[in-house]
């Protein structure tokens, strides 16, 4: 028989929806990968497209259908497979019977050569699929003019902005060409209008009970794009803790059935964070012109990480326009508008989309031509009583009511959504109704009606055709909202001669420049000092880089000798690399931020705020920028053993005195340490006195400004009582525990705790042998949490919620936890929250 050289093995597993243990996973097949294997695109000419998930056949001894997620990770995986593939060209003879091509697939094949297709169906829920991606192997490597995008423009010329600016193999010369091409894109592109349907719906944890067609199919003609956002998809603890919910496919199917019946749509992307979900559909004929699809999520709940509040976002290229869509759920409650403002700013700062070229800096939301923002923004009506609000609604006096809208006021003051536009609101508030009716909230709280659910946009060539609510849907206590936008997209002109002529002129011009000049820049400043840097308090300074040379230049911060990155972990430069045309400048933000990772070594004096940045010009010289500063030590990021030794605030004690106390710990003449750090006592005592009955304690985030006041109070002793709301003090306590260099249950005990998590007596035995200060803190916190549970009728806390929140803080993993470990850690802590006769009262555990 034929001898095949074995290149590797492919292990095929299947598993349950939430695989927890090895018993939940089954090894189905082991497939040898040899020289005769191939990866082939699967698609169908007459079925509905699902662009967001891609189907491939791997041909070896067996045939295997493989579904890969859409995005840069898959793109990198396929690139690596391509790189490793043997030189000999494989044969695809067996695939000839599958080569019935659709119109889109034909143009794709004509453009790139050896794309082969095969029909595939998704059997569950009747979804029919066509993949519009491609991947093939050839003897030559992928060339610069043909990229391995999973969705790409069928035109081979570089008319797409993402193709011009995203190629990893481009150097300085190529970037010069791309920049000039973009300046002259009017010569080979034009503006064409497309309709975008944007919808947002807070479904209050309900299952879909009615058709969504009155909402999604409300336009006279089918839109080109659908961007549909949900909030509170699932309010269960399981969804909150493990980001898994059976309601995702239920609502996805409801959306699919509710789309406009007069067109076929492709599902491009689904992205979800807990209950925040965004679905992206496009008319099938447009899908081939979408590229550079990426998705990101960010939680803005307690500690700035929990995903009950936050945002999901996608970005993509459509023809020559780059578009970003954000679906967010911001902080609740009328008085919390500042927290909503903070959430918006955090989302804008923290969502960063990776680019094809991994050496390029990530793209922020505001770096896109068009930004579409939808969701339950939770801004309320201020300064009006509920009866007055309802009276204005009955009179349809929305203008008067809108003047009291918090979002309008914050936008007027340019606090949030600067540069965004919202259409005129001529519909009644969409929150809050009795579920299943059009009646305003009749519960005990009797919420004031508000326009919580909003849609805004930012960019040029955008016109709103409608903005409305949909009162006929009664599933939730919110009403869905929709906006139909007409967006002008820069589309390539099919005029290759014009493009070629422009390209050649640019190349000739750059050739002349390259021969004559060396790049050069001037810096506005070369030394920067950051004064009084504090834990989790951002500081930034700006250096302006001006191209004073005769040619465009490319700059980049590069690592110093024997260092892995260009800067210390507490410092970033934004942008870290870029391109400067002749006579132009760029402002680079030097940002300092000390977090839980960098605070311990700064507190102990092992590290200082000192660094040298090296700014390198391609084909030019290096420039050096000095960054220094002074860090104010904090109890946040200090060890429990050190804090127990400090009877004065940490900033009142010189660093050398603190070091001497730590060294003398074994000396019997040294003063006895405190049982627990006074900082923990102050926070817990405050919550014990004022927050035992507080609703959503440890679940609703506080305000950043209040956290900073609490931190300063603990570090300086400036106040006898802590400032800020109960939620801010609660979040400060969580952040304190999260920042401990060694957690309450030290890292060295972690494996033992996992091993005995199902045995209560063994769990208690481990706690009994902890270092004294760690044991004291653990018992003190557990006693406090047990006290909170006595008031569960008011604060609505239970053992499961508290265990879920505190388990990962008290018993922290030294590495990233998997789902099984998270469950074991939670089980360990739960044993202590169930009160036993031996548990002492919290009052007996106060420090001396």
UniProtKB/TrEMBL annotation:
PANTHER family reported for this sequence: INOSITOL 5-PHOSPHATASE, TYPE II INOSITOL 1,4,5-TRISPHOSPHATE 5-PHOSPHATASE
Enzyme Commission designation: 3.1.3.36
Name the UniProt record assigns to this protein: phosphoinositide 5-phosphatase
Domain (Rho-GAP): residue spans on this chain: 653-841
Any one Pfam family match given in the protein's UniProt record, by short name: INPP5B_PH
PROSITE patterns cross-referenced by the UniProt entry: RHOGAP (PS50238)
The family this protein is said to belong to: Belongs to the inositol 1,4,5-trisphosphate 5-phosphatase type II family.
Gene Ontology terms describing biological process: phosphatidylinositol dephosphorylation; signal transduction
Domain of life: Eukaryota
Main location: membrane
Organism the protein comes from: Cyprinus carpio carpio
Keywords of this entry: Cytoplasmic vesicle, Endosome, Hydrolase, Lipid metabolism, Membrane
Keyword Iron among UniProt keywords: no
Annotated localization: Cytoplasmic vesicle, Phagosome membrane; Early endosome membrane
């Amino acid at each position: 028989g034929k001898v095949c050289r074995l290149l590797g093995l492919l292990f095929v597993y299947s598993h349950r929806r939430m695989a927890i243990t090895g018993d939940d996973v089954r090894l189905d097949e082991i497939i040898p990968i040899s020289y005769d294997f191939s990866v082939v695109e699967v698609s169908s000419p007459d079925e509905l497209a699902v662009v967001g998930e891609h189907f491939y056949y791997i041909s070896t001894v067996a045939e295997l259908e493989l579904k890969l997620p859409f995005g840069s990770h898959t793109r990198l995986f396929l690139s690596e497979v391509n790189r490793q593939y043997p030189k000999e060209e494989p044969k695809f003879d067996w695939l000839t019977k599958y080569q019935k091509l659709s119109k889109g697939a034909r143009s794709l094949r004509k453009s790139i050569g050896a794309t082969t297709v095969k029909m595939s169906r998704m059997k569950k829920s009747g979804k029919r699929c066509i993949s519009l991606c491609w991947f093939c192997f050839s003897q030559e490597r992928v060339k610069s003019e043909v990229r391995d995008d999973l969705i790409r423009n069928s035109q081979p010329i570089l008319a797409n902005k993402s193709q011009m600016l995203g190629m990893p193999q481009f150097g300085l010369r190529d970037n010069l060409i791309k920049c000039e091409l973009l300046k002259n894109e009017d010569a080979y592109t034009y503006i064409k209008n497309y309709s975008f349907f944007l919808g947002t719906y807070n479904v209050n944890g309900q299952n879909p009970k009615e058709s969504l067609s009155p909402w999604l199919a409300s336009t006279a003609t089918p839109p080109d794009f659908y961007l549909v956002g949900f909030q509170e998809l699932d309010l269960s603890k399981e969804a909150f803790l493990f980001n898994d919910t059976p309601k995702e496919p239920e609502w996805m199917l409801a959306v699919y059935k509710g789309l406009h019946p007069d067109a076929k749509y492709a599902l491009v992307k689904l992205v979800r964070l807990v209950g925040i979900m965004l679905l992206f559909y496009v008319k099938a004929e447009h899908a081939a012109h979408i590229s550079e699809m990426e998705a990101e999520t960010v939680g803005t709940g307690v500690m700035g990480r929990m995903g009950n509040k936050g945002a999901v976002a996608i970005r993509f290229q459509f023809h020559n326009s780059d578009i970003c869509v954000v679906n967010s759920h911001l902080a609740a409650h009328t008085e919390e508008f500042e927290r909503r403002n903070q959430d918006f700013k955090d989302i804008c700062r923290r969502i960063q989309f990776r680019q094809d070229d991994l050496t390029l800096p990530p793209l922020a939301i505001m770096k896109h031509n068009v930004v579409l923002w939808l969701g339950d923004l939770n801004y309320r009506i201020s300064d009006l009583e509920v009866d007055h609000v309802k009276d204005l609604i009955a009179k349809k006096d929305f203008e008067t009511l809108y003047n009291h809208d918090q979002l309008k006021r914050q936008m007027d003051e340019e606090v949030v959504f600067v540069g965004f536009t919202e259409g005129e609101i001529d519909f009644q508030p969409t929150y809050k109704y009795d579920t299943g009716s059009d009646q305003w909230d009749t519960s005990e709280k009797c919420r004031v009606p508000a326009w919580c659910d909003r849609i805004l946009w930012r960019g040029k060539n955008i016109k709103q055709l409608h903005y409305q609510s949909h009162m006929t849907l009664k599933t939730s206590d919110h009403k869905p909202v929709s906006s139909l936008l007409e967006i002008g997209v820069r589309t390539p002109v099919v005029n290759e001669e014009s493009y070629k002529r422009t390209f050649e002129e640019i190349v000739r011009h750059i050739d002349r420049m390259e021969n004559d000049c060396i790049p050069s820049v001037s810096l506005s400043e070369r030394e920067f000092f950051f004064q009084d840097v504090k834990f989790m308090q951002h500081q930034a300074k700006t250096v302006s880089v001006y191209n004073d040379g005769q040619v465009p230049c490319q700059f980049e911060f590069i690592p110093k000798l024997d260092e892995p990155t260009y800067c210390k972990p507490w410092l970033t430069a934004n942008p870290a690399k870029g391109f400067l045309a002749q006579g132009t400048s760029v402002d680079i933000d030097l940002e300092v931020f000390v977090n839980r990772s960098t605070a311990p070594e700064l507190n102990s004096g092992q590290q200082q705020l000192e660094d040298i940045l090296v700014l390198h010009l391609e084909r030019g010289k290096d420039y050096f920028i000095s960054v220094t500063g002074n860090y104010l030590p904090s109890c946040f990021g200090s060890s429990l053993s050190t804090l127990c030794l400090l009877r004065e605030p940490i900033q009142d004690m010189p660093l050398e005195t603190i070091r001497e106390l730590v060294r003398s710990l074994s000396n019997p003449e040294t003063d006895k340490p405190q049982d627990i750090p006074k900082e923990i006592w102050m926070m817990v005592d405050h919550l014990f006195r004022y927050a035992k009955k507080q609703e959503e304690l440890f679940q609703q985030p506080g305000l950043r400004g209040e956290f900073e006041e609490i931190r300063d109070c603990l570090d300086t002793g400036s106040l006898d009582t802590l400032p800020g709301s109960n939620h801010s003090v609660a979040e400060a306590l969580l952040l304190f525990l999260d920042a401990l260099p060694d957690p309450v249950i030290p890292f060295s005990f972690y494996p033992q705790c996992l091993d005995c998590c199902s045995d209560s007596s063994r769990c208690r035995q481990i706690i009994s042998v902890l270092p004294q200060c760690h044991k004291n803190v653990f018992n003190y916190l557990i006693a406090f949490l047990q006290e909170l549970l006595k008031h569960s009728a008011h604060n609505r806390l239970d053992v499961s919620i508290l265990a879920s929140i505190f388990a990962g803080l008290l018993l922290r993993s030294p590495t990233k936890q998997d789902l099984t470990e998270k469950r074991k850690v939670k089980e360990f802590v739960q044993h202590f929250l169930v009160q036993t006769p031996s548990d002492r009262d919290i009052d007996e555990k106060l420090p001396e």
